[in-house]
From TrEMBL:
Belongs to the short-chain dehydrogenases/reductases (SDR) family. PROSITE patterns: ADH_SHORT. It comes from Flammeovirga yaeyamensis. Signal peptide: none annotated. The keyword Oxidoreductase applies. It holds the Pfam family adh_short. The keyword Oxidoreductase applies. InterPro entries: NAD(P)-bd_dom_sf, Sc_DH/Rdtase_CS, SDR_fam, SDR_oxidoreductase. This is SDR family NAD(P)-dependent oxidoreductase.
């Protein structure tokens, strides 16, 4: 089936790529999804801010900056001119700002929401007319367990993912009559290079030093010791083939149990979360 994914399938920082071999790219969720879907017979088009720097990727890449309206319009105009059908849109691109709420600057917080939330929204708004015209389509938002619970020292990241969850739930109702399905995928911790590209808020308030260090170390350890992200890719593939996809797909142990525990016993959930992140 013709397929297009909007996400950073080549998302490895140059300094990290030089230090490690290209097999580390396998651990980026966007690339893992794109590669798995291609192996399963889908026509995959990925996006990148700099496609020319990723010539070694065996996936068709198109230039796209999801924070630029001009870039998004240029891409969608090209799709419409070529009468390209878009069967599946995967909103995967994003960044992670880590740090204390009080220390995170307004500029950093706005950058987090502009990228993770408004970037996905802007792309979706431009693709929807194509899907309505063809009378079918699937829109998949890769959110996070952080969009279902409050993650300490990731308050604005969590806010951006909660916002996507809310929009997806409402949008699902609005577009169902046009044959368009909307789903979210909420991964827990998976082995990736994400923690090597965190944007860290300035550490300016010493009162937070101990708990901040403990929480950030928990992120690093949890990602390093987590399973490979192939489970996320397989979940996306399952959604594509589903005739009646669900609204929400939680993937991984953390992604499944913690939101469930929060619903049934918040006090126990809160105690467990604070223990996991070594908070006093």
């Amino acid at each position: 089936m013709p397929f297009i994914t909007f996400g950073k399938v080549d998302d490895i920082r140059n300094n990290y790529e030089n230090e490690h071999s290209n097999n580390r790219r396998e651990l980026w969720i966007g690339y893992c999804i794109a590669k798995h879907l291609k192996q399963n017979g889908h026509h995959v088009i990925g996006t990148s801010r700099n496609p020319s720097k990723s010539n070694d990727i065996d996936i068709q890449l198109i230039e796209l900056d999801i924070t630029s309206k001009e870039s998004i319009e240029k891409l969608t105009d090209k799709l419409e001119e070529q009468n390209f059908s878009v069967d599946v849109l995967i909103n995967n691109a994003g960044i992670a700002v880590n740090g204390c709420f009080e220390e995170t600057t307004e500029d950093l917080a706005r950058k987090q929401v502009e990228t993770n939330f408004w970037g996905a929204i802007s792309v979706t708004r431009k693709i929807l007319p194509i899907m309505r015209k063809q009378g079918s389509g699937k829109i998949i938002f890769i959110t996070s367990w952080g969009g279902l619970i409050g993650v300490p020292y990731q308050s604005f990241y969590s806010a951006s993912k909660h916002a996507l969850e809310g929009v997806a739930k409402s949008l699902r109702h609005e577009v169902k009559e046009f044959g368009i399905d909307v789903s979210t995928v909420e991964p827990g911790f998976f082995k990736s290079n994400l923690h090597n590209s965190f944007t860290l808020a300035p550490e300016s308030i010493r009162d937070y030093d101990k708990s901040r260090t403990n929480a950030l170390q928990t992120f690093d350890n949890s990602i390093e010791n987590a399973p490979d992200p192939i489970a996320v890719a397989k979940t996306v593939n399952r959604i594509i083939y589903s005739k009646k996809p669900k609204m929400s797909y939680r993937v991984g142990k953390d992604g499944f149990w913690l939101p469930l525990l929060q619903f049934f016993n918040f006090n126990l959930f809160e105690m467990g979360t604070r223990r996991k992140f070594n908070l006093p």
